[in-house]
UniProtKB/TrEMBL annotation:
PANTHER family for this protein: TRYPTOPHAN SYNTHASE ALPHA CHAIN, CHLOROPLASTIC (PTHR43406:SF1), TRYPTOPHAN SYNTHASE, ALPHA CHAIN (PTHR43406)
Subunit structure: Tetramer of two alpha and two beta chains.
SUPFAM superfamilies associated with the record: Ribulose-phoshate binding barrel
Organism from which the protein derives: Dendrobium nobile
Protein name: Tryptophan synthase alpha chain-like protein
Reactions performed catalytically: (1S,2R)-1-C-(indol-3-yl)glycerol 3-phosphate + L-serine = D-glyceraldehyde 3-phosphate + L-tryptophan + H2O
Length: 297
């Protein structure tokens, strides 16, 4: 299914921040050949660990984001997480906070991001997951937000500040559009609560490696190994680990501990957004990405 050339005409409700639903005939865009679940099934059969990079949409600009998505896909990303810029990213560390400020300062908005994704996603070999704070969803409304994600070919959604007790309505609307709502858990999450989160999470479970915000760290939290071992006894659902993963040694260790996927964000965002030029940033990201994927089985 080919997308119309003028994307901006298809998302007027989002462009104005309206509460009006989008015409559903304009909301479906070609997606990755594989779903998130199918991707992890493939990785399991191949005895591989998934590489999941994170980038902030619009940092340093949307053209570079588009190129970065193609680059990461060609370098072996199994899933790609795209962050929606937000002025108060409470769970993000200084690197991603700075990247969102740069993107917002440049005038990047949700409509432009979705239009860009609608263009590039059909060319990628891996599913896209959108990382969005809940207030961004409520500014539009849940139904229109999910329709927009469908338009952009997005297969998954992570909402880090949404309390688990409040996921019902959002999960229902996401699943109706064939979008996975991926939930987060921390090493300190109680066993009772963790079981409920695992059962409710779509596609895979996002295991946060440490309490606190995102950002590169020198060493991995040893609690992650214990939590992975415990989870593996209770569920066959894939588990991807994120927050603080920034070195080939980290991804190798996580694969030894039994993670099904590794999520690398701040280290990539820093290279892409803080380089002297977009071209230099993309070159550095390519080299770094290859060093990470070569450390994985």
């Amino acid at each position: 299914m080919a997308l119309p050339t003028n994307h901006s005409l298809l998302l007027p409700a989002l462009l104005k921040g309206s509460k009006t639903s989008i015409n559903p005939s304009f909301t479906i865009s070609p997606k990755s050949p594989l779903t998130i679940s199918e991707t992890f099934s493939r990785l399991k059969k191949q005895r591989k660990v998934g590489f999941i990079p994170y980038i902030t949409a619009g940092d340093p600009d949307l053209c570079t984001t588009e190129k970065a998505l193609r680059l990461l896909s060609s370098c072996g990303a199994d899933l790609i997480e795209v962050g929606l810029p937000y002025p108060d990213p409470i769970l993000d560390g200084p690197v991603i906070q700075a990247s969102t400020i740069r993107a917002l300062t440049n005038g990047v908005n949700f409509q432009a991001i979705i239009s860009m994704l609608g263009k590039v996603v059909p060319e990628l070999s891996c599913p896209i997951i959108l990382f969005s704070y809940y207030n961004q969803i409520m500014k539009i409304n849940q139904e229109s937000f999910m329709s927009a994600l469908n338009y952009g070919g997005i297969q998954g959604l992570i909402v880090p500040d949404l309390p688990f007790e409040d996921i019902g309505s959002l999960k229902k609307r996401a699943n109706k559009k064939n979008i996975d709502l991926v939930l987060l858990a921390a090493p300190t999450t109680s066993n009772y609560r963790l079981k409920a989160i695992v059962d409710a999470s779509d596609g895979f479970l996002y295991l946060v490696s440490t309490n606190g915000v995102t950002g590169s760290r020198s060493n991995l939290n040893s609690q992650v190994q214990f939590r992975l071992e415990e989870l593996k006894k209770e569920t066959s659902k894939p588990i991807a680990v994120g927050f603080g993963i920034s070195k080939p040694e980290h991804v190798k260790q996580l694969s030894i501990w039994g993670a099904n996927g590794v999520i690398v964000g701040s280290a990539i965002v820093k290279l892409l957004g803080e380089s002297k030029s977009s071209e230099e940033g993309l070159r550095l990201v390519e080299t770094f990405t290859k060093s990470l994927t070569s450390a994985l089985p």
